[in-house]
User: Fold this.
Amino acid sequence: MAGGVGAAKFVRGLALTVDQRRLDVIVNTGDDETFYGLYVSPDLDTITYTLADVVNRGPGWGLAGESFNALGALTRFYGKPWFGLGDKDLATHLYRTDRLRQGASLSRVTAEIARRFGVRASVMPASDDQVRTFVKVKGLPTMPFQQYFVKRRFRGAVETIELKGVATASPCPAALRSIRQAAAVIIAPSNPFVSIGPIVGIKKLREALRSARDRVIAISPIVGGKSVKGPADRMLRGLGHEVSPLAIARLYRDLAGTFVLDNIDAKYLEPVRGLGMRAIAADTVMATAERAASLASVVLDSLAR
Ligand code: FO1
Assistant:
C-alpha cells in the first residue's frame, strides 16, 4: 500500500528482491487533481514511472529528461503555473483523461498505462471512486491537497485533514482480492494521514487488513523525530500526536501485526511491542536502490521468523 515518492523507493527495492509480477501495488488517489481539464494522479504515476525506471530521480516524481514547453505556452491562458507538468508527463494525463471520458475505470486505465511503460507489477488505485484529500491550515480556508503540498510547500500548522468520499468509496476489486490472498501486505513508509489514510479509510479494505493482520507489516515514515520526506511530522504534531515511530505504530496497531522502525529509533522497539505488535529495527532510509532492496528483504523475512 503506497503513497508517493517514499513508497516508490520502497517498491523499487521490493521489485529488486522479488519478481515484479508477484507485486500488487495499491495506491493512494487522494492527491489526484484536475489541471487544464486533465486528470492527474501523482501517486499512481510516481509508482508507475519508478517501476518502469523512467522517473526523474532527483525529485522522485515526473519523468527523467523532461521539458516544460507546453506548460510555458499554457501560461498565456492560465497565468503562472504552480504545478510542474512536463511535456512527456502530459501524454500520460491526456491518455488517462481520454480513456476515463470514454468510460473506462481508473483501475483499468492505470493498468493500461503501466503496461505501456513496461511495468510487470500490478499497479492499482485503492478505489475507482473519487476520494479527495483536503487540508485545513491555521488561519486559512480548507484547501485541496496539492495546493497545500505544492503551492504552499506545506507551510503552517495543520488543524484538520478531510478525506472526502472515503466513507462511501468501494475498493477496487483487485485490491481487495490482493489483500485477502497476498503472502504479505506491506504498508510502505508513507504519510499515514494523507497517503495511507485514503486507502485504509475504505471500509472493506480496512476490514480485509484487520483479517490479514498477522501478514501485515507497516514501515515507519518517521525517523529520528522527523519525516524522511514531506509533512508527516507536522501533521502528527498538528493533530495532537507525538512525532515518533510509536505514534505511527499506534495508528496502525489494529491493522498491522508487525512494525518496522529505523535502527536510530531502537528505543521504541519495546513500547511498540507493548501495543501488541511485533517490532523490528532496520536501516529504513533508502538512500540507494540497494538499501531499499535490503529493507525489502528484512521486511519480507520478518514474516518468516
Ligand atoms: N511535487 C512538487 O513538489 N511540485 C510539483 O510541481 C509537482 C508536480 C508533479 C507533477 C506530476 C506528478 O505526478 C507529481 C508532481 N509532484 C510535484 C509530486 C506530487 O505533488 C506529490 O508527490 C504527491 O502528490 C505526494 O505524494
Notes: The two ends are 22 Å apart (CA to CA). The CA atoms of residues 236 and 243 lie 6 Å apart. The domain at 31-120 is CATH 1.10.8.240 (Helicase, Ruva Protein; domain 3).
